[in-house]
Specification:
25 strands; alpha/beta; 585 residues; single chain; Rossmann fold; 5-stranded mixed beta sheet; 4 domains
């Protein structure tokens, strides 16, 4: 017995010496919980197409490999700083115009903080002397260095290693890419999402007062006749000639224009070039409420990259909804791995998959990640669209599924200014009101279908469900306690979908830190009818047929300890419909 105990102690000691940390929850693990085994992560990270590059290698060898595999190299320096003053939902109603003013004033505070702090750290770290184009984020704690073709040397790699060890730096990401790559995600059609006949019967819903950013491989063609009456702004900088592109144009037409879902929404159009932060922050400067990203240029599908973390920071702090296409990596020319394209792997990004007219998932639509998260969040019908003045050409892909969700989101924001101020409400509302698919079959521990997510986006239900969509905050660490309990009246013999959604707080680090919340549906007497108990995802979903009309409780429990010192921004939404209501109808 003594020998056995001695061996156990030796094994535990080796685990601690080797840098492993084991987090053990209580002995009685509820169904769906996972044991967490975490390993210390390197502060110098290589997000490159050459997976053999390691931080321990000689600097000259690293520089040679990067120059060989890449047209350009960018470096993301994540600083040990954060801004925690996100907008809270006011306790009184405000107009769309007042909400936009509040968001604008708030973003100015965010920008003032990060501009000052990031510029100071650029000087302290000497980043301006590294022979790179320095790009300072004004809305997050990132600084970017961009290098041209074969510009890296062992000196630069040595400096990156030194900077990564600075206690004011969380991580340094070295990223490679190719400029002349086909970055489109095409192949879908705009199908029925209950935009019509709802909007035909309610013509006041046209996107007025809402600004939608189209961040794409090019800019929209302002001369397209369907944009004749559109309020648009296209980035036009002297240092970078934007290129009109049919992909950006057709995505913009899906969202707005006289044929779009939100024809009176204001379109902001900007082209991607190397950097994500420059275009994203231009859109924030010009008042974007929604940013649509229907492309990718990263060679790291399925992973939580620095770009994904950057988008999570942007959403967390700046009252903006980011909607992204899941990707088409099931196509024969995309490797058939079905991995969600970065940075749409971000927790706070609403990622959209593609289905056909009847709700069957299209074979190319991406849905797989290399870490535990529920992606896509939802889906949209997307099978071959024809746009006017394109000579009958058909367009498709999850690009247009995302654009459909962006257009519908503009209508939801127009219907209630709360969604402008706290757009993470849409993370719960869009999922709770999504039409179930009769082709859903495999569910993960958070209650989402593995390919389709929460279901097919439904405009009518999303707009009209505002009184069943609630925002709340958690600033205490009540491990194992109910942090919210809401008594609701539900109709018997009807299906109810309940969704909990929270924003991930990247608390001074891109390490994934998701507080573990669980969702329960209970009777008045406290009996549990249904529950969703995932450990890693920032969303939970319950789909249940209510037996009898009466009062029930929606409860949200903080299962583990709170992962950061920041306030958690949370929301839940519920929606009822007939049990037979599904995507086939």
């Amino acid at each position: 017995m003594r020998k056995f105990l001695s061996n156990v102690l030796i094994i535990i000691s080796l685990l601690f010496i080797s840098g492993y940390k084991v987090e053990i929850k209580n002995n009685a693990l509820p169904f769906g919980k996972e044991m967490i085994l975490e390993e210390e992560e390197e502060k110098l990270v290589f997000e490159t197409s050459d997976s053999a590059i390691q931080a321990e290698s000689a600097s000259g060898e690293i520089a040679d490999k990067l120059n060989d595999v890449s047209d350009y190299v960018s470096v993301a320096v994540e600083l040990d700083d954060w801004f925690d003053e996100a907008i809270e939902e006011p306790d009184y109603p405000v107009s769309v115009e007042e909400a936009q003013k509040i968001v604008k004033e708030h973003r100015e505070k965010v920008k003032a903080h990060y501009t000052k702090e990031n510029e100071r750290m650029v000087r302290e770290l000497g980043l301006g002397f590294l022979e790179a184009e320095v790009e300072i984020s004004r809305y997050t704690n990132f600084v970017f260095l961009n290098y041209g073709d074969k510009a890296l040397s062992d000196f630069h790699i040595d400096r990156f290693k030194t900077i990564s060890r600075n206690n004011r730096v969380n991580k340094v990401y070295v990223r490679s890419g190719q400029l002349k790559r086909d970055r489109h995600e095409l192949h879908c059609a705009k199908l029925k999402t209950y935009v019509e006949p709802f909007v035909l019967n309610h013509p006041e819903y046209d996107g007025s007062g809402i600004s939608v950013g189209v961040f794409d491989v090019g800019i929209i063609d302002k001369n397209h006749p369907s944009f004749a009456d559109t309020d648009y702004l296209i980035r036009d900088e002297w240092w970078y000639p934007e290129t009109v592109h049919e992909h950006a144009t057709t995505v913009g037409l899906t969202i707005a224009g006289d044929i779009g879902i939100a024809p009176r929404a204001r379109l902001l159009s900007v082209e991607h070039f190397i950097s994500w932060s420059g275009p994203i922050e231009w859109l924030l400067d010009h008042g974007a409420n929604i940013i649509n990203i229907s492309f990718t240029d990263r060679a790291t599908p399925g992973t939580y990259t620095s770009d994904a973390a950057y988008l999570d920071y942007v959403v967390r702090n700046n009252s903006v909804l980011i909607v992204g296409s899941a990707g088409n990596r099931g196509s024969p020319d995309k490797g058939r791995d079905h991995k969600v394209t970065s940075p749409k792997t971000g927790f706070n990004v609403i990622t959209v998959g593609a289905t056909n007219w009847h709700g069957y998932p299209l074979g190319y639509s991406s849905h797989i990640t290399d870490f535990l998260i529920s992606k896509p969040n939802l889906s949209a019908p997307a099978e071959l669209i024809r746009f006017p003045d394109f000579n009958g050409k058909e367009f498709g892909g999850t690009s247009y599924a995302a654009a459909i969700v962006s257009g519908i989101s503009a209508l939801v924001m127009q219907s209630d200014s709360r969604y402008i101020l706290v757009p993470h409400l849409l993370g719960a509302n869009l999922a709770a009101t999504a039409t179930p698919s009769r082709f859903a079959s495999t569910y993960d521990s958070s209650g989402y279908e593995s390919v389709l997510g929460a279901g097919i986006v439904n405009c009518e239900l999303a707009v009209t469900n505002k009184y069943r969509t609630i925002c709340f905050y958690n600033n205490t660490d009540k491990q194992g306690q109910v942090i919210l309990s809401r008594k609701v009246k539900l109709e018997g013999n009807k299906r109810v979908k309940i969704v909990f959604y929270s924003l991930v707080n990247s608390d001074k680090s891109t390490n994934i830190k998701t507080t573990d919340y669980d969702l329960y549906l209970k009777t008045e007497s406290g009996y549990t009818l249904a529950m969703s108990l995932s450990s890693y995802s920032n969303t939970e979903l319950i789909d249940y047929v209510i037996p009898t009309t009466g009062y029930y409780y929606i409860e949200i429990v903080q299962y583990g300890s709170k992962k950061t010192s920041l306030k958690d921004y949370c929301a839940y939404s519920y929606c009822q419909f007939d049990p037979g209501f599904d995507s086939w109808g």
